[in-house]
Request: fold
Amino acid sequence: MKVSYYPGCSLEASARDYQESIEGVCKRLGIELVELEDWNCCGATAAHSLNHRASVELPGRNLVIAEKGETDLVAPCPLCFNRLKAAEKALLNGENGDYRYTIEGKVKIWDLADFMAQEKVLGLIESKVTNLLEGIRAVCYYGCMSSRPPKVTGAENCENPMSMDKILTRLGAEPIDWAYKTDCCGASHVVDRPDMVFKMVGKLYQRALEVGANCIVVSCQMCQANLDIYQEKIGAELGVTVDLPIIYFTELIGLAMKEREVEKWLSRHFVDPLTFLGEQDLLARSWV
Amino acid sequence: MESIQQSPVEIDPGFSNLVQTSASLNVNACFQCRKCTNGCPVTFVMDIYPDQVIRLVLLGQKEQVLRCSTIWVCSACETCTTRCPNEVDIAGTMDALKEMAVKEGIQIPQPKTYAFHKAFLQDIKKRGRMFEGRLMQSYLLKSGELFRKLADGSIKEEINLGLKMFKKGRLPLLPKGIKGKKEIKEILR
Reply:
């Protein structure tokens, strides 16, 4: 299987763990990721806040490049995915007709978690699972941008996405249902209004602990950073010990397939997931 | 008896149409059910609620709506737009209002948020991709946060975070540029 791949800027830096786990897992599954040639930043929140035209044209340029190929396009960052989909919609509707790019709309754009939760990929994953993730009781946290608004994302059930829940079930982990799957973490406000983000993330920790989760599984590197990096500080403000590893779903796929590199990926986190996974006898030292 | 002096309210009747020009925001369809506000995760930092933003747009209260904090603290989570029964694009309207406020030279009530967005766009204008290390530096400078953090000593936290990210291999020292930088510059001209 071959797909075009749009990593996005943060996967080249702060979300290196996500990037490495995606590459490692796809290689094992025989999914060939063809990085989009000379891709550019999607413009993210800054572009759609200050410059509507640029917020269409920046991802639009990437869509033009993607249409030179024949394959579907996969984006691991939900914000990139959302901006690509929004640009696709604007360009196809010819809104105002004054954008510099035109597209045919022939490339299907995927959110990575949705791509991996297709039945054919789930089957492929399941066939390679040798390390059942028993003991992992996780809440799947999807965040905003892979779901909303459904008119843009095409999400089937934007209030209750299931892609990661389905994947975790196939890995032998236990996904716990909770009502905060798509509640916002505050995203880039962590830079300019950390007070807001700390309050929003604090609520997520409390709800995750209430349902008895022992970790939070994510598909968004902004969510991961906000829930992982400041956990100790936010916990102290709440007066509770949180201690919830924030793990990418791709890292769990790697772990279930006994991918050797998985401990390297996980060591890049702030809240240490290795102690927790070791206690569940899921790490290499327990592999027979 | 003391007479009540009411100053006349200035109404800009074309304002809602003006707000809608750049996209299909559909603000005129609002019937004030307040579903947007009830589902909004950031009302706790807003000065006026999302339904009030839409109402003020419809009432032509341009000054008030362009000067509010709400449009800047909105986290663009799109819950309001998703749930609106009349298909008003509330989050999109917040964006259109931010863009308008900047064009009109209004003093932005959330200067740090504005500084971050500006620093972000300037960063991608240089190389076509965002480079986190550089972006944070220019944000700290432009927002004035660098001087505040130097003064109160909290700069130590920033430095420690940077060092930790570097040790974990998550802070590369050199940015990557793209061949199509010129095109990106034109888009962001």
